[in-house]
Amino acid sequence: QICNQHNAEAPNLEQVFHRMAQTEPNLDHDVSWFLLPSYWAKMVVALISFLCFANSYDGDFVFDDSEAIINNKDLRAETPLGDLWHHDFWGSKLSSNTSHKSYRPLTVLTFRINYLFAGGFYPVGFHVINIILHCTISVLMVDVFSILLGGLQFSNKGRRLNLAPKTSLLAALLFAVHPVHTECVAGIVGRADLLCALFFLLSFLGYCKAFKENKEGHNFSIFWVLVSVILGAVAMLCKEQGITILGLNAVFDALVINKLNVLELIQKLLHKDKSLENAGLLRKGLLFRITLLMSGGASILYIRWRIMGTGPPAFTEVDNPASFADSLFVRAINYNYYYSLNAWLLLCPWWLCFDWSMGCIPLIKSVSDWRIIALAALWFCLIGLIGQALCSEDSHKRRILTLGLGFLIIPFLPASNLFFRVGFVIAERVIYLPSIGYCILFTYGFSLLSKQAKKKKILAVAVFGILLINVMRCALRSSQWRSEEQLFRSALSVCPLNAKVHYNVGKNLADKGNQSAAIKYYREAVRLNPKYVHAMNNLGNILKERNELQEAEELLSLAVQIQPDFAAAWMNLGIVQNSLRRFEEAEQSYWTAIKHRKKYPDCYYNLGRLYADLNRHIDALNAWRNATVLKPEHSLAWNNMIILLDNTGNLAQAEAVGREALGLIPNDHSLMFSLANVLGKSQKYKESEALFLKAIKANPNAASYHGNLAVLYHRWGNLDLAKKHYEVSLKLDPMAPGTKENYNLLRRKLEQLQKKGG
Questions:
Q1: What is 634-658 written as a DSSP string?
Q2: Model confidence over 141-190: pLDDT tens digits?
């Protein structure tokens, strides 16, 4: 009978273990929310996260995408794969003084794969991968939140139990629809944060697997601990924040696996209590596991430090003004104010901006500044939460609050300016991971309110309303990230004091040919930041093209005075001085530009034009040759060499240069035209005709192409074809120089021939 009773109860051990696990307070008990099976919960989260950002799939490359993707040579097939491991995120050598030291080779590798599969720079594929990654991360969050909110428990069959299905679903939905994530998902450069988050979560879940066979913390799998460390390293190779998962795994181990009471442990350490050995540090292997995590983390950081080099990244004051403040007090106050603004973006993500630098947030320089209230509010809340996390008698409350604060604060530390200067004031992308902590705290707060509330459904409707508003905000913000024009204009109302916002709006307008409107925004950028050299350079360029040379020279001179190594401004100043016929000053400006940027083909091209104007033909040819050596596809430099050699009677040399140029740029119709002229003068009529016709096929509306082909036929004696092309040329450009005279000569000759024939 005893044996039969034992056998009858054996299949229900999983249920018994589940009941034992429920002896802890359960967040779901008082929460009025949807209860779905795990599979359906994940499907719902995936669908809603997809709906939030789906409209970004066909957006353009915007903002930083240009530098990280379009201008990044590491994406192209001709760049050896090995270079990815020696270059930063933007394609610069890590050893370079100008490198930002952002070492994310795995992220760049995914960009390269995108580029190869798409066969070029087509943004759709890049955007689709970002959306898929966010959906995947949001689905993983269901499992992560079920552990963080409900604890880590396994059945006797080794299946992890979800002890908080309702609250884990709510927290995952809060994460999936948070508008602050738009930059990471809709901005392709945000791929770094998404990949980092993916491996960050996999590292955490892998660490949890180490205790699959564990009932009291005595047994664990070293294999899964090491897998967790490796996944943490992979996360860091996607973005620097990834390394923080090792610290969070240690916190989770102490609080959840070993159920340590931090306050009690501190008190015992302070009093040198002999009972400390019974706290479970050694008995449950916590110290050993933490040693594995920390030694793994230290090794990863050392290797990264060796690859990066010992020098820190170089940032300017406009990138992060608080970090350049002389006063420690001003730095501390402003750093804390930045933290409060990040917290506010998590609580109320309504005012979002692609860039928060350049005066967007003026420095707090005095305690009389009313913004000090934000710091006080932040620390009042943090101290309250930390006090409850340490001192509460409810172990369940201590665990959830500590984990929530841990996931909120620890992943944010690399962006906090505490350990090193960062290159931004606020960046919405860096709170992608810390938002996990916010979701934990929000969900726990909701559960406490539900416990006290009499009308739980009203509270649930309010939370549902927040989710719905966030979904709509995500969709709106995603649409703003679809194009640079919408993105930059959306920032004008959020950060009207940000010079970079006005600069980017102006640049976008200038690229579209609206110079008058661009000037207005460039002027405002310079007004807001009188040391904004890039705005001065671009404004000077437009004024130069509008022949407002005096103001252009003043702006460019000021730009190089503020930043003496600004090569582009030196070159543009040289162009203006050349136009003002101050040739010696122009030459000096060009050489200064080349001194600061040795590989500067456009500057050599402009220097060649200066020498040509001064009839220094040998110097002009040498300058243009340098331009083509540095940039073999520099069509203008090749063309000028051919034309100069042609004009000076060096036809054989002009022909050789023309053939060399067409060998490198075979489809350039301007080169075909120039070489055709040379061949015509050399009486190589057939070859010249073929090139003229090929050039006309590529650019049929060029009056000069038809006019010069007509001259060739005229010389060749093919008068009917000459007449035809003269007429086409005059139809395209009635004022074409020389064409009308040549046409009249041809007509008189044809009339004479007709008379003779008559």
A1: -HHHHHHHHHHHHHTT-HHHHHHHH
A2: 999 999 999 888 887 777 888 888 999 999 999 999 999 999 999 999 99
**Is the predicted pLDDT of residue 757 greater than 70, yes or no?**
no
Beta strand ranges found along 295-355 (DSSP E): none
Rounded Cα–Cα distance for residues 386 and 434 (Å): 16
Mean predicted confidence (pLDDT) in 735-742: 83
- Is 241 a domain residue? yes
**Are 587 and 577 spatial neighbours (Cβ–Cβ below 8 Å)?**
no
Token representation of residue 557: 């001179």
Backbone angles phi, psi at 363, to 5 degrees: -65, 145
The Cα–Cα gap between 106 and 113 comes to 11
Average pLDDT over residues 344-351: 93
| Residue type (1 letter), 756 | K
Positive or negative, the CA dihedral 186, 189, 190, 192 is positive
Residues 672 and 691 sit within 8 Å (Cβ to Cβ): yes
| Helices 123-150 and 38-53, packing angle to 10 deg | 140
Contact 144, 404 (CB under 8 A): no
SS3 category, 220? coil
Residue 744 Cα distances to 140, 702, 721, 730, 740, angstroms: 80, 21, 15, 12, 6
Residue 263 lies in a domain: yes
Buried b (16+ CB within 10 A) or exposed e, 317-339: ebbbbbbebeeeebbebbbbbbb
8 A C-beta contact, residue 346 and residue 180: yes
Helices and strands per DSSP (H, E), number in the chain? 34, 0
Whether 240 is covered by a domain: the verdict is yes
257 within 8 A of 217, measured Cβ to Cβ: yes
Which among 583, 197, 660, 146 has a CA at the least distance from the CA of 403?
A: 146
Enter the DSSP assignment of 256: I
Domain total in the chain: 1
Q: DSSP label at 375?
A: H
Distance from C-alpha of 627 to C-alpha of 602, rounded to nearest angstrom: 7
pTM of the model: 0.85
Using alpha carbons, select from 255, 297, 308, 258 the residue that is nearest to residue 279: 258
pLDDT at 19 over 50: no
pLDDT at 4: 38
The full DSSP string for 406-473 is: HHHHGGGGGGSSSSS--S-S--GGGGTTTHHHHHHHHHHHHHHHHHH-S-HHHHHHHHHHHHHHHHHH
Burial of 270 (0-12, 13-18, 19+ CB in 10 A): exposed
DSSP code at position 100: -
Q: Which domain holds residue 289?
A: 205-310
Give a yes or no: residue 368 inside a domain. no
